[in-house]
Amino acid sequence: DYKGVEDHLAAYAKAEAEYEYETKKIDAKDKKYDNELSKLETEREALKTEYDSVKKVISDNIERTFGIFS
Q1: pLDDT at residue 70, as a whole number
Q2: Which of 51, 15, 65 minimizes the C-alpha distance to 7?
Q3: Geometric angle at alpha carbon 48, from 43 and 53, rounded to 5°
Q4: What element of type H or E holds 49?
Q5: CA gap 31, 4 in Å, rounded
Q6: Tens digit of each residue's pLDDT (9 = 90 or more) over 8-66
Q7: For residues 2 and 47, what is the distance between their CA atoms, to the nearest angstrom?
Q8: CA dist., res. 37 & res. 12, Å (int)
Q9: How far is residue 62's CA from residue 60's CA, in Å, rounded to a whole number?
């Protein structure tokens, strides 16, 4: 019976469209999270660089200060 086949094909097409729609939503979220992660990684690297720089300044100041007493 063609009606049953048509109904089956219509249901299949609807399910496929819903799957594609949901997959695109997931892909968009994934991209958003990847961008956010990249931004956070860049910020972390900047903070680490700043920390290392301050640490070196402190170390250099300590060496210079105690070098005076040597």
Answers
A1: 63
A2: 15
A3: 125
A4: helix 2-68
A5: 40
A6: 999 999 999 999 999 999 999 999 999 999 999 999 999 999 999 999 999 999 998 88
A7: 67
A8: 37
A9: 5
The HSE-up count of residue 54 (CA atoms within 13 Å, CB side) is: 6
Place of tokens 């594609």: 20
pLDDT, position 6? 94
With cut-offs at 50, 70 and 90, classify the pLDDT of residue 3: confident
**pLDDT band at 68, cuts 50/70/90?**
confident
The tokens describing 15, both together, are 């399910």
CA distances from 10 to 7, 18, 19, 22, 24 (A): 5, 12, 14, 18, 21
How far is residue 54 from each of residues 8, 48, 60, 68, measured CA to CA in Å? 68, 10, 10, 21
For Cα atoms 43, 47, 53, give the angle at the middle one, nearest 5 degrees: 145
